[in-house]
């Protein structure tokens, strides 16, 4: 029998595409990134899109599983978005990374940062300690 969780799992690719495109489309308007960082992100958009897609996919699938385990409904994923807490950490155009998080009403892990490309989850305390 199908459930809301199964429906949400089947919609993850669409949500990921929307979240990633919204993030990149909003970059020129953000004050979080310097001009040089924006240029590097623009040049590395294809690889960063893939990295961000993998990270967001993992976050959404984890959220759906968590809600299912708790018997809670999944929030309105259509309103969730990715925000970058730290701008780009650049070695070169082929090695771009950032720390960010998903935010939105009903998202249970607000404040839990993750690396892009994915390596490990970063807690809010670790992010603040870097500041």
Account of the protein in words:
This protein has 131 residues and is α+β, with helices and mostly antiparallel strands. The protein has one domain (4-130). The protein is built from four helices and four strands, in the order αααββββα. It has helices spanning 4-25, 35-43, 45-70, 124-130; strands spanning 81-92, 95-103, 113-116, 121-122. It has a four-stranded antiparallel sheet with strand order 1-2-3-4. Helix 1 runs antiparallel to helix 3. The radius of gyration is 15 Å and the shape is elongated. The model has no long low-confidence stretch (mean pLDDT 80).
Indicate the topology:
Blueprint: H1 4-25, H2 35-43, H3 45-70, E1 81-92, E2 95-103, E3 113-116, E4 121-122, H4 124-130
Antiparallel strand pairs: 1-2, 2-3, 3-4
Helix pairs in contact: 1-3
What characteristics describe this protein?
alpha+beta, four-stranded antiparallel beta sheet, about 130 residues, single chain, elongated, 4 helices
